[in-house]
Input
Amino acid sequence: MRYNLFLIVYLLVTNMFAQETHLKIFPFKSAIIEYKYEAGLGGTHVKYIDDYGYKQKDVIRKEIKLGDDIEKKYETIILIGSKAYTINHQDTTVAIGVNSTYSYYLQNQNRKTNDVTEALIKAEGFKENGTKKFLGKECKYWKADKAKKLTWNGVELKSTISFFMMMVEKVTSIKVDVDMPKNTFDIPQELRYISSDVYQGYSGLKLKFDEDNKSKPEYNGSIKVEFSSSNLESTDNIPFYSQEGEKIIQTGVNDYNKVDFKIIKSQLSQLKSNKTDFEQSRTLIFYQKDGYGEGFNLYGKVQINKINKDGFSYRYLIFGDEEEITGYSDDDNSALTRIFDISPDKNNRKLILTPKKGTSCIVLGW
Output
């Protein structure tokens, strides 16, 4: 009897310490936020937040107008700590994977709740540009090249993007510190499981907060944040899919596998337009403004598969502005050669990449 009691206590204590840390991502305990899409988009989005953001659920019904056609997207994303469940209601599947963003909150537990959230907004290329009133709330106003957004307590209340068309998402109702409906974060059991390597959120960024200016008289409360993708050891390989839904298999050095759209965008200020010597063991990332002269930007990565006296081959992946795959290495290298002139050096040990108009690049140093 004493043995059984000891075993029960041991299991309870072990389970308690094994549980994942519940971090405060938002300064309020719970919320239900309703959005609507406007301009080139139609549909609705409802966001549920509980346990200060440890649990989040986004129910998205989106209609994208493409000329005379309308593309419908109906999905639910449930985040519970470091777990992510992406539910596709159109093909009744659920992908269970990783909420990569949660790791940044774990790494910066000594910071205020909004610090990491706002650092990740900056990683998307946004800069803080004062405040604006929206729905009676004092919101931070953020601007990027062709986008702007309003945030309140770390929650995005309105976003406007102008690429091929104007796309607007804005809050119509927000209720804070509410009782959450029962079973809100339950995962439907009748859906078909499809993958274990899908992820949600940011991946591979290293945040560095600089608070040296806090003691200066002109300090206004803002925090300078530096981003680096040089530390990817803890990042799982990222799966990519073509626009047709075909999975793009990536093999070889894992650094290439771990570079995604957001990592490339976080490094744009470091990219150069110089001719580049490119070795087989390295990964190069690039950006082309007004890609192919067709009015949208391209982001990508490339790595050498083989280079010797018989020739060379390489693998690459190219994203458009909306993270869609616009080109990848599938025995057709025309997409990459429209961005670079590529030739081996005289010793057949490196490739020489000469960026074409509007292209800048950098070889990652890890």
Helices lie at 2-18, 102-107, 113-123, 254-257, 261-266, 334-337. The CA atoms of residues 134 and 157 lie 8 Å apart. Confidence is low (pLDDT under 50) at residues 1-18. The two ends are 57 Å apart (CA to CA).
